[in-house]
Amino acid sequence: MATDYDAPRRTESDDVSEDSLEELKARRNEAQSAVVDVDESDTAESFELPGADLSEEVLTVRVVPKQADEFTCASCFLVHHRSRLASEAGGRMICMDCAA
């Protein structure tokens, strides 16, 4: 006879004193309780990242107009290079990412 060494060991006294059906149901319900302990102080607003105060920061970005070899995808509205053009039907240009 094969022995399963991973199985929990049981003694004869365990076999005799089986739990009642009600006790087993109660244990199962306790194990499946969906109560989540949420602490209001653990919200994302309470996290303070070092150096993250950008309230006085002024960002300057140079905007470059769309070049002659670029197109705007009619699906995702991103500007892509012409090499990324997957299809053009009725003036609607679709990039390779949206066509996939």
- Name the shape in a single word: elongated
Give start-end ranges of low-pLDDT stretches. none
What's the β-strand tally?
4
Evaluate the radius of gyration.
32 Å
**Helix and strand sequence:** HHEEEEH
Q: Could you give the distance between the termini? A: 57 Å
The biggest beta sheet reads: 2 strands, antiparallel
Total number of helices: 3
The helicity comes to 10-25%
Strand arrangement in the largest pleated sheet: 1-2
Q: Which structural class is indicated by helix and strand composition?
A: alpha+beta
Mean pLDDT rating: 80
- Percent of residues in β-strands: 15-25%
Give structural notes.
This protein is α+β, with helices and mostly antiparallel strands and 100 residues long. The protein is built from 3 helices and 4 strands; from the N terminus they run H-H-E-E-E-E-H. The chain has helices at residues 12-16, 21-31, 96-99; strands at 70-72, 79-81, 85-89, 92-95. The strands form 2 sheets. It has a two-stranded antiparallel sheet. The protein starts with 11 loop residues before the first helix and ends with a helix. 3% of the residues are buried.
